[in-house]
Amino acid sequence: TKEMGKNSFQFYFPELNQWSMQSLILENKLHQALEREEFVLLYQPQLNLQTGTFDGMEALVCWRHPDRETVSPSDFIPLAEETGLIEPIGEWILRTACWQNMEWQKAGLPPQKVAVNISARQFNQLNIAELVGQVLRETGMEPRWLSIEITESAIMQDVQKTRVTLRRLQEMGVTITIDDFGTGYSSLSYLKQFPIQTLKIDKSFIDDLPEGSDDRGITAAIIAMGHTLGMLVIAEGVENEAQLDFLKGRGCDKVQGYLYSPPLLAENLAEMLARGSEA
Ligand code: C2E
Ligand code: CA
Ligand code: CA
Ligand code: CA
């Protein structure tokens, strides 16, 4: 899309031209969506396997397009990243997740940690620690109730900058989770140096458990390694009892997935909070 206007090659590649047009239209719609407040955060609860209780949640954005079906983040986050719109959208997500958490706390519901996804561009191009500090001050949320989820590739892009950013977040009291762990290329020596509290095993390793022999090995190794480094390990995309049993057997700390709950609207998550922490 960046080439449009400068180049006329789109005339020779009708498919490319059409794709460019579509992403331009989508980019405009994303702008409007932000102004018209069409984004919604859903919250997926996490289960602590040690205690068998509700233990934190992940905020997941979706786009409620007025005359279309709800658009999943995989269909617009990549374009938002590419165009830079992820910065205002991501700021809205962070602010909304913290604001919602505080609303629940003010209503007297038991506090729970909320994990917010931060995309690579947000992490590397923005002063994310400053933004987090600002949002925490604005909303009055204590830092210990916030966790930041970032991918391995995001933290490995500029390790010098990562070191500074993660240290500032740690000093504030915000926790760091490495998302989709095992799918990227992070170096163990950096993992050890960075103040990371949680590893989240990617769903692709969980899908074929407990049969897939590679996945069994990889999952067990990630859990053991995380524990060796003093981290908590959470598995995402857990859909059935057999997967849960395997993960329990290997000492996984927490799970998140359809088996326990899909992502929920804020009002439904509030009902879970109100029921207390029993699963
Ligand atoms: P992710 O961070 O790995 O999120 C997990 C995805 O798996 C979510 O899809 C969630 O709804 C889905 N999921 C959870 N449990 C299960 C399960 O048991 N089975 C299956 N099949 N799926 C499950 P979603 O909401 O479509 O998000 C997709 C991706 O979009 C996320 O992957 C994340 O990379 C990105 N994303 C979502 N929300 C945000 C956000 O607020 N900010 C940013 N930067 N990215 C986001
Ligand atoms: Ca995530
Ligand atoms: Ca993930
Ligand atoms: Ca994933």
UniProtKB/TrEMBL annotation:
EAL domain: residues covered: 23-277
Source domain of life: Bacteria
Protein name: Diguanylate cyclase/phosphodiesterase with GAF sensor
The species this protein was found in: Desulfuromonas versatilis
Residue numbers of the full-length protein present here: 396 to 674 of 679
